[in-house]
Write a structure and sequence with these properties.
The protein is α+β, with helices and mostly antiparallel strands and 423 residues long. The chain folds into three domains: 141 residues, Beta-Lactamase, CATH 3.30.450.60; 126 residues, Immunoglobulin-like (Sandwich); 108 residues, Immunoglobulin-like. It has eight helices and 24 strands. The protein has a nine-stranded mixed sheet, with no helix packed on it. A hairpin with a 2-residue loop joins β6 and β7.
Length: 423
């Protein structure tokens, strides 16, 4: 049972408060903010994203999700499956993103009425009820420009809860009577690579977290069967409720009646072997002295199937006593944050068979902490994206619609998740 929800701003202030079963007093939010502050103050390496997702308190278990600067906090008192709470919190985020595009403190404040109506429809006395976007949009209309103008002027808005229409499908995730002039469906395989790489370029640990995103524009009530290349590479996976799990277990195919519009069909994890050739290699050289250090970092393409790296950013956190950093790069531009002590190098795009990006320079240590700075380790973070590339090798092989082959459009994207190089 999920009793309450608090949506907190980046400063810990309550933006939204909703109670479904039992009124939980606000001091629990103060306790949560104190525990988050203590956890972040205990170590310089801990950011808000690294705070424990479940924090115990004298009376409650504080289950929380942090995304885009906002915290979604659900205190629970009774026996409850925590994964159900996490799934529901993420479903709230997905629904609000479906309605408003981007979810921020400003967005929520501009759409208070719609947000509270959605929370009311999604939960019944502490138990999830309606969580599919198609069903919710038939009950709670998405706000339009006129509603926002009227709300800004202080007048009542036209947003109101509608009764469930008689033409609603028996499947909660799909509307009835959908018609398109051109029947088509799009799939995106998006993989994020989490890796720890040593200074020689060898992967210490590496795994891919992927999702199959779909955009369905098919008329009627289509029944699809999707086959994959190398489906047994997948270690852990979860599916949209429309997927017939028994069919996946027996034949490793995805059989489902898709929702209309955008949805996430599947998420998965693939453990990549330690000898896996990563798409990019970072060659760091940091020579540390007593009063400072000199550094030279090169970024090279290695295994991209001839594809370019885009949106490449290299991040080098330095010791808190670092001062007077000077650098030179042959590609892109760099910026040093003197407060956060972070060097950020925006490389942009790396094209195969062109010169490798290089940044070199030096920085000094403050006299008070020079010895600690000299003994500190350095970990480089890397962000990048590769279009039409899948590092795990998972691919879509074919699709059948009512036992007939149907063409589909596929895009593949590989991104860096937590990609860390030890210098």
């Amino acid at each position: 049972m999920i009793e309450s929800l608090f949506v907190l701003s980046s400063t810990g202030k309550v933006i939204i408060e909703k109670h479904w079963h039992e009124l939980i007093p606000r001091p629990v939010v103060d306790y949560f903010n104190e525990q988050v502050s203590k956890a972040m103050a205990a170590s310089e390496d801990i950011s808000r994203e690294d705070v424990l997702p479940i924090i115990p308190s004298p009376k409650y278990q504080l289950i929380n999700v942090y995304r885009d600067g906002l915290t979604y906090l659900s205190p629970v008192t009774k026996e409850v499956d925590p994964m159900m709470v996490f799934e529901f919190l993420h479903r709230i985020l997905d629904i609000m993103q479906e309605y408003f595009g981007t979810v921020s403190e400003t967005t929520i404040k501009e759409n208070f009425v719609t947000v509270y109506q959605l929370l009311e429809e999604m939960m019944d006395d502490g138990y999830p009820l309606t969580t599919e976007p198609n069903a919710l949009k038939e009950i709670v209309p998405a706000p339009n420009i006129l509603d926002k103008v009227i709300s800004t002027m202080g007048a009542p808005t036209s947003v109101s809860t509608k009764k469930m229409p008689h033409g609603m499908s028996n499947l909660p995730w799909r509307k009835a009577g959908v018609k398109y002039a051109t029947n088509e469906i799009y799939f995106d395989i998006i993989e994020e690579i989490d890796a720890i790489v040593d200074s020689t370029g060898k992967a210490v640990s590496c795994e891919a977290h992927g999702t199959i995103q779909a955009n369905c524009r098919l008329s009627g009530m289509p029944d699809l069967t999707l086959s994959l290349v190398n489906p047994r590479l997948v270690d852990d996976c979860s599916f949209h409720p429309s997927v017939r799990f028994n069919k996946w277990e027996s034949d490793k195919v995805l059989s489902f009646v898709p929702p209309d519009g955008h949805f996430q069909l599947m998420s998965y994890r693939v453990n990549l072997p330690s000898q896996q050739n990563l798409p990019v290699q970072v060659k760091p050289s940091i020579n540390i002295g007593t009063n400072g250090a000199k550094f030279d970092i090169t970024v090279c393409l290695r295994n991209t199937e001839g594809k370019s790296l885009e949106d490449v950013v290299l991040i080098l956190p330095l010791h808190k006593s670092t001062t007077n950093l000077t650098a030179h790069c042959n590609v892109g531009q760099y910026m040093f944050d003197p407060v956060g002590k972070v060097l950020r190098w925006d490389i942009g795009k790396i094209v195969p068979r062109e010169r490798a990006p290089v940044i070199s320079g030096s920085f000094a240590f403050g006299s008070a902490n020079s010895e600690a700075a000299a003994n500190a380790g350095y970990n480089i973070g890397l962000e990048f994206m590769i279009k039409q590339h899948s590092l795990s090798g998972l691919m879509l092989e074919g699709m059948k619609l009512f036992n007939e082959s149907k063409p589909f459009k596929l895009r593949r994207i590989t991104k860096a998740g937590r990609y860390q190089i030890r210098a």
